Amino acid sequence: MTIKLDHTDIKILSALQQNARISNAELSIKVNLSQTPCLRRLRKLEQSGLIEQYSVVLNHQRLGINVAALVFVKLEKNTSSNAAEFEDAIDQLSEVTECCTLAGAHDYVLRVLTHDLTSFERFLKDKLANVKMIEDIQSTIILNQVINKAPPLT
Question: What is Dmax (Cα atoms) for the chain?
Answer without folding.
Answer: 57
